[in-house]
């Protein structure tokens, strides 16, 4: 090996201090093969690439994990003449109407209002209602769409479009509040509607806290500040404050119904009406339309809360008639697939709601247009996604 330097190994010392006979061993330095160098480079490249790829995926998926953006919806053919140029948009209001959970509803209305090919809108409602503010916002947007007051990107407003409402399983309280802008309201035979009223459930835990030695120290300025806290008893002055808020919301609800139904109501909202008793035949109970209770579809038609009993198809036919269309293509709007949904192969017909316990009735002192028995409707658990019907 003429080109390899030879390195001698140190000689051991014998017991007598002398140097015993030994053999000099020559060690050849290790030389990396080309294959080994390439393998090391590939492993380092794969490690760094994996780190960068995971970081990129985290950046891309973070918006999907934290929030959902439905500003751009996908239009899908539903029924009717598929080749027709004129469209009837079906806007789906499904679930509780609560701030932070209603973006999908607003985006559908905006898409229908800004599309010049959409000549009429069917609002399909399956909702027990929700918060006062969210219900009022939706009511205004549906009214603006109907009256041609929706702001367009050009700075002008949209053209007026007939609005027909199709009530499904339940369209009560806030669900009825947003229905009254409809020029005609249909309800299915099994629909529950009405529930014209407002309430504010206030959780009171102060006695339980006192029994277990739990105290809440409230430092405040202003006599009515901290009204409705679950850790203190409600004072008469605080109750009067809430009564005033509830009365204002109640009066607005009744005014909205009167303006929307106008001369279609058969009786006044405060007039007593006789409703056949469900307990004993032949007996009647006295009620009022605005007593907060629900009505069947047949009762709602009798009192003028709705126009007719029918299904979505009937609402579409009426919308087509109001828009004076010979043929039309019915379309619905779907939320776009997020990157995470695409990777998992998920197709969501409508977005699942986010769980926010602070938005549930009783968890905060606020007024609600909500049907009795639906206090936990804010917990929109996507059960059908977990256990789909095959």
How is this structure best summarized?
The chain has a domain at 70-202 and 240-338 and 360-379: Alpha-Beta Complex (2-enoyl-CoA Hydratase, Chain A, domain 1), CATH 3.90.226. Helix content is 32%, strand content 19%. The protein has helices spanning 34-66, 103-114, 132-147, 174-177, 206-211, 236-261, 297-303, 312-322, 339-344, 383-386, and strands at residues 7-8, 26-27, 74-80, 87-94, 118-127, 129-131, 163-172, 184-187, 192-194, 272-276, 284-288, 294-296, 308-309, 329-334, 368-370.
Question: Helix proportion of residues, in percent?
Answer: 25-40%
Low-pLDDT parts are: 63-70, 345-359, 379-390
Strand residue content:
15-25%
Oligomer designation:
single chain
Q: Residue-averaged pLDDT, rounded?
A: 79
Main beta sheet, described? 9 strands, mixed
- The end-to-end distance, rounded to whole angstroms, is 76 Å
What is the C-level CATH assignment of the domain at 70-202 and 240-338 and 360-379? Alpha Beta
- By CATH, the topology of the domain at 70-202 and 240-338 and 360-379 is 2-enoyl-CoA Hydratase, Chain A, domain 1
DSSP helix count? Answer: 10
| Count of strand segments | 15
CATH architecture of the domain at 70-202 and 240-338 and 360-379: Alpha-Beta Complex
From the spread of the alpha carbons, the general shape counts as flat
CATH homologous superfamily name of the domain at 70-202 and 240-338 and 360-379? 2-enoyl-CoA Hydratase, Chain A, domain 1
Q: What structural class is derived from the secondary structure elements?
A: alpha/beta
Return the string of H and E elements: EEHEEHEEHEHEEHHEEEHEHEHEH
Radius of gyration: 34 Å
């Amino acid at each position: 090996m003429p080109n390899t330097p030879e390195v001698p190994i140190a000689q051991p010392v014998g017991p007598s201090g002398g140097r015993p006979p030994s053999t000099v061993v020559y060690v050849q330095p290790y030389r990396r093969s080309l294959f080994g160098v390439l393998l090391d480079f590939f492993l380092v490249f794969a490690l760094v690439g994996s780190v960068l790829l995971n970081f990129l995926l985290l950046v891309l998926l973070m918006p999907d994990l934290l929030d959902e953006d439905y500003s751009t919806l996908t239009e899908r053919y539903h029924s009717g003449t598929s080749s027709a140029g004129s469209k009837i948009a079906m806007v789906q209001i499904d679930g509780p109407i609560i701030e932070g959970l209603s973006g999908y509803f607003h985006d559908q209305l905006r898409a229908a209002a800004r599309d010049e090919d959409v000549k009429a809108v069917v609002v399909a409602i399956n909702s027990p209602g929700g918060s006062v503010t969210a219900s009022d916002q939706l009511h205004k947007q549906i009214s603006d769409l109907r009256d041609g007051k929706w702001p367009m990107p050009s700075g002008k407003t949209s053209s007026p479009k007939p609005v027909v409402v199709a009530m499904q399983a339940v369209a009560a309280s806030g669900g009825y509040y947003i229905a009254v802008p409809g020029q005609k309201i249909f309800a299915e035979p099994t629909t529950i509607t009405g529930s014209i009223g407002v309430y504010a459930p206030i959780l009171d835990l102060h006695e339980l806290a006192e029994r277990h030695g739990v105290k809440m120290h409230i430092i405040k300025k202003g006599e009515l500040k901290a009204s409705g806290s679950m850790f203190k008893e409600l004072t008469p002055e605080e109750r009067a404050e809430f009564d005033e808020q509830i009365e204002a919301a109640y009066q607005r609800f009744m005014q909205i119904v009167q303006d929307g139904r106008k001369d279609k109501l058969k009786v006044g909202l405060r007039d007593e009406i006789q409703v056949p008793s469900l307990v004993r035949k032949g007996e009647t109970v006295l009620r009022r339309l605005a007593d907060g209770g629900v009505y069947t579809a047949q009762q709602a038609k009798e009192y003028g809360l709705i126009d007719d009993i029918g299904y979505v198809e009937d609402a579409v036919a009426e919308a087509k008639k109001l828009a004076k269309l010979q043929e039309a293509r019915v379309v619905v709007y779907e939320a776009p697939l997020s990157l995470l949904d695409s990777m998992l192969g998920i197709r969501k017909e409508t977005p699942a709601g986010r769980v926010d316990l602070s938005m549930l009735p009783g968890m905060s002192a606020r007024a609600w247009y909500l049907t009795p028995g639906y206090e936990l409707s804010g917990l929109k658990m996507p059960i059908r996604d977990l256990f789909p019907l095959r």
